[in-house]
Each structure stands twice: as C-alpha cells, then as structure tokens.
C-alpha cells in the first residue's frame, strides 16, 4: 500500500478505482480501520479514484504519542491528497472521520463536496454520547478474549439483533478489526481528538455542497447532531435513516452507498 510521511508520521492508505477519475477521500471513525469503507469503495470504484487512509494510530499508519486533534488528522489527510497530486476531492467521513472531514473542508479549498455520516459539529449545543454508552464503548469486561472484547465494544454502535441477523458478517468484521483497527494507544489519542473537537462556530464558512446522513436510532452520536449540522453548514442536505444505528452505513450499506453515489453524481 502507498504511504506518505508528514511531520515524521507515516500515513498508510489504500487506492481503489481509476486513478484518472475524480478523487473520493474516505475518512473513518474512532479506532476503526479502513475496512469500514470496503463496501462504499467497491460501489464507487468504477467511476472514481477512492482513497482510504488509516488515521494516525490506526492499522499500518504510525501511532505517535497523543493526544491527537481533528485538525492534525485533517492535515494528514491533506498530505494523502498531496501524495496523489489531487487538485480536488470529494470527502466523506463517518463519526470521528466526519469531524476530520469538517476540519479539512475548512482548511483546504480542494474539498469539492462533503458527505458527513453519523457525526457532530461539537460545541456546547451538540448532543454528546450518553454516559452509559461512553462507558460501554471504552471498557470491555476484563475476562473477555480479543474477539469477545471487540463484539462487546461494538454493541452500542449496531442495532439490536444485528449480531443474530448477520453472524458471518460480524465474524468477518471482528477479523478485520483485529487486523486493522487502532492500537490501544492510538484509540486513546483519537478519543482525545473527538472530546476536544468543536467546529460549530466555523461551519458557516464551508462552501462545498454537503450531504448529511444519520441513523435516527444512533446511540453513540444521537441524530440531533445531524439536524444541528444541517443548520450550521450552508448548502447542506440531510437524509435520516429511520431506525439506523451508528454503523447504519454497514447495516444499510446498499441504501447508503446508493445515496452517496447519487449525491456524487450530482456534484462531481
């Protein structure tokens, strides 16, 4: 896989699709590796060059000592665009990746469009992760083995019954997470970036066409944050997925991918 080094930190990234086509940059959430975009990357590869960097602290990228910031990770993403000689990019981010995407849109005029999934603008008006969910996603039982730990930590991000409905997929996700997710140190450093993030008083400067997608049953970052984002970003459209959990883009991947493809077809 290609990589780029910025300020001594090497960021590894995957490239899918046509290198001569418009560029799409996909930014993943807290602790998650680029596996989470495998379905969207496949859906876009016929028409776009798709870049999937591992955030610092994740997968094959370096994991320097934290805390990290969303702006710092946005600069890493910009370095990936530089490495590809991209003069424009459609940027899509989920959860923490959506926060990184907001920072990138505010700092880099190459952002041609913005797609924000299950994320938040931060700030005093944002709806935070409920305390019980926060505790669940950061503290697995001490006697859990590595596979049990991942399943436990992911429970609040999926809908009730998902593990039973798609057991083979869940097993594959656990495999991908064991192989490519953030290190414990990286996850902690990324969590600090999420906790400190606040773009709420700057988002009126975003001039890229923006699509906001969110599940209405998101327990990690409640859907009120999507409505808040839509009110802060000019030229933003919002689509809510009824009953969708935090990982609605995994559980409802075909619908989500179709909506993103449609949006990119309008703005690309």
Question: What is the strand and helix layout of this fold?
Answer:
Blueprint: E1 3-6, E2 9-17, E3 23-27, H1 38-44, E4 49-53, H2 70-83, E5 89-94, H3 96-107, E6 111-117, H4 131-138, H5 146-154, H6 162-165, H7 167-180, H8 184-196, E7 210-215, H9 224-232, E8 236-241, H10 248-251, H11 253-267
Parallel strand pairs: 3-4, 3-5, 5-6, 6-7, 7-8
Antiparallel strand pairs: 1-2, 2-4
Helix pairs in contact: 1-11, 2-3, 5-7
Keywords: Hydrolase
Pfam families: Abhydrolase_1 (PF00561)
Organism: Halorubrum miltondacostae
DSSP, total strands: 8
Instruction: State the end-to-end CA separation.
Output: 26 Å
Low-pLDDT sequence parts = none
Tally of individual helices: 11
- Roughly what percent helix? 40-55%
The sequence of SSEs as H and E is: EEEHEHEHEHHHHHEHEHH
Shape: globular
Computed CA radius of gyration, to the nearest angstrom: 17 Å
What would the average pLDDT be, to the nearest integer?
Answer: 97
Largest sheet: 8 strands, mixed
């Amino acid at each position: 896989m290609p990589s780029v080094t910025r300020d001594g930190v090497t960021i590894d990234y995957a490239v899918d699709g046509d290198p001569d086509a418009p560029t799409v940059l996909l930014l993943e959430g807290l602790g998650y590796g680029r596996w989470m975009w495998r379905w969207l990357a496949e859906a876009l590869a016929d028409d776009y060059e798709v870049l999937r960097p591992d955030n610092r602290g994740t997968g094959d990228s370096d994991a320097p000592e934290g805390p990290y910031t969303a702006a710092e990770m946005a600069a890493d993403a910009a370095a990936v665009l530089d490495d590809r000689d991209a003069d424009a990019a459609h940027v899509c981010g989920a959860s923490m990746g959506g926060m990184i995407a907001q920072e990138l849109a505010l700092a880099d005029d190459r952002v041609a469009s913005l797609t924000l999934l299950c994320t938040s603008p931060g700030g005093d008006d944002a709806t935070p992760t409920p305390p019980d969910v926060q505790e669940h996603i950061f503290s697995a039982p001490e006697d859990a083995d590595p596979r049990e730990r991942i399943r436990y930590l992911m429970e609040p991000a999926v809908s009730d019954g998902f593990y039973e409905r798609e057991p083979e997929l869940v097993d594959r996700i656990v495999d991908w997470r064991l192989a490519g997710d953030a290190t414990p140190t990286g996850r902690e450093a990324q969590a600090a970036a999420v906790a400190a993030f606040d773009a709420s008083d700057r988002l009126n400067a975003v001039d890229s066409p923006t699509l906001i997608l969110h599940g209405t049953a998101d327990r990690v970052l409640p859907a009120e944050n999507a409505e808040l984002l839509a009110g802060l970003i000019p030229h933003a459209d919002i689509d809510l997925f009824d009953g969708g959990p935090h990982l609605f883009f995994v559980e409802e991947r075909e619908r989500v991918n179709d909506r993103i493809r449609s949006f990119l077809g309008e703005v690309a």
